[in-house]
Recover the amino acids of this structure.
């Protein structure tokens, strides 16, 4: 409760359109509040569904104090469970991913069906009831080929995201994809600094020469003004896509937690490559009838941003490790029948994003070093270039304030 009160006081002290107070980026107690009130209560992007295409395929992940396992059942359904044996608590699956006909704990071999039911427990006596000791479920939903989990006992409705993602991602055929490459890095920065860095491109011209070959560094490319107007090049791209039967152009959830928007790449750009040409030209992932279909950026707070292109897709997931460490995982998706070395060159496919991830890590880590200094005073954000940062910080403050019971007071402040 002391941490909650401190968090509310810090949120109340925040100046609108400014960065957050220093302890929110540095204090381990604040991370505890973030975990309890955001990460353990909101829907989180976990994996692309194509990562577990067959029955028994599983993936594990760690969300704060919670290890979980995501598995595809014999009935084709994707489920998630707390990755802790109901016997004495050992993790049932210790590998990052793999196949498993059953979920067997390596400690004492308690064995569970893929739907979580306990099948075998050695020498537990006549009064033991296996039905009472199945794996504890975690809320799990699939939307447009992406899998989300929620640790809350009573998760918020997933209906709007399921409907929108199912519609907007349909042309990108994520269920018919496979992972061509995966990268995981640890950025020595608070998770909010990682997201803030992603939500603006004011730094791109100086820090990201590779993606700026095809993706513009101005905010108007991915947002509307207050009257709902967009740049003419965006409006023309939307009209072109809709004439070809592509789903709606822009969708921002009323809570501002997630957004889809279609944007063209610069000039004749087709993909995020050094020359702008498609990285997978002959077996394109999208059904768009033209190569210059641009990108469908999708962000989902608190932990994901993504780009769905005509030829491939990149999905990003971040998870907090400590108050000043964040794990960022990137996965490149291609059509499942695309062959490396024949249909695409792996270096060409991944070069831009690998470089960008490294550059972003350097930016975030320098940002963390600066905000950790006792002399740090939150500065103002640019309404022109950093509207995405303002939008994310506003969402975070509303979310945390409401969850801590001080939303009305913060609004008044």
């Amino acid at each position: 409760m002391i941490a909650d009160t401190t968090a509310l006081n810090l949120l109340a002290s925040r100046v609108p359109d400014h960065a957050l107070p220093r302890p929110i980026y540095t204090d381990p107690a604040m991370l505890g509040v973030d975990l309890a009130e955001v990460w353990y209560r909101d829907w989180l992007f976990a994996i692309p569904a194509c990562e577990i295409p067959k029955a028994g395929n599983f993936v594990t992940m760690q969300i704060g104090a919670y290890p979980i396992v995501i598995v595809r059942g014999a009935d084709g359904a994707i489920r998630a469970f707390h990755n802790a044996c109901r016997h004495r608590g050992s993790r049932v699956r210790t590998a990052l991913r793999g196949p498993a006909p059953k979920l067997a704990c390596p400690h004492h071999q308690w064995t569970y069906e893929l739907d979580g039911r306990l099948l075998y427990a050695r020498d537990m006596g006549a009064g033991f009831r296996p039905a009472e000791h199945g794996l504890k479920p975690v809320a799990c939903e699939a939307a447009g080929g992406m899998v989300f989990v929620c640790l809350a006992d009573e998760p918020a409705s997933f209906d709007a995201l399921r409907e929108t993602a199912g519609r907007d991602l349909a042309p990108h055929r994520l269920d018919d994809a496979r992972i061509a490459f995966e990268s995981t890095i640890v950025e020595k920065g608070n998770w909010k600094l990682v997201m803030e860095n992603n939500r603006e491109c004011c730094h791109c011209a100086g820090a990201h020469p590779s993606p700026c070959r095809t993706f513009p560094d101005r905010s108007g490319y991915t947002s509307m003004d207050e009257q709902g107007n967009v740049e003419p090049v965006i409006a023309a791209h939307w009209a072109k896509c809709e004439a070809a039967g592509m789903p709606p152009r822009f969708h921002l959830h009323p809570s501002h937690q997630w957004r889809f928007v279609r944007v063209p790449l610069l000039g004749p750009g087709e993909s995020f490559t050094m020359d702008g040409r498609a990285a997978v030209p002959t077996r394109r992932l999208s059904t768009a009838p033209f190569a210059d279909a641009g990108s469908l950026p999708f962000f989902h707070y608190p932990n994901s941003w993504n780009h769905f292109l005509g030829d491939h897709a990149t999905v990003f997931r971040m998870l907090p490790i400590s108050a000043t460490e964040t794990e960022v995982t990137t996965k490149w998706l291609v059509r499942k029948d695309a062959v490396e070395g024949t249909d695409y060159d792996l270096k060409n496919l991944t070069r831009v994003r690998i470089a960008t991830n490294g550059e972003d890590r350097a930016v975030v880590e320098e940002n963390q070093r600066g905000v950790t200094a006792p002399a740090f005073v939150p500065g103002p954000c640019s309404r022109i270039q950093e509207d995405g940062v303002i939008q994310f910080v506003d969402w975070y403050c509303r979310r945390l304030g409401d969850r801590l019971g001080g939303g009305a007071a913060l609004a008044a402040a």
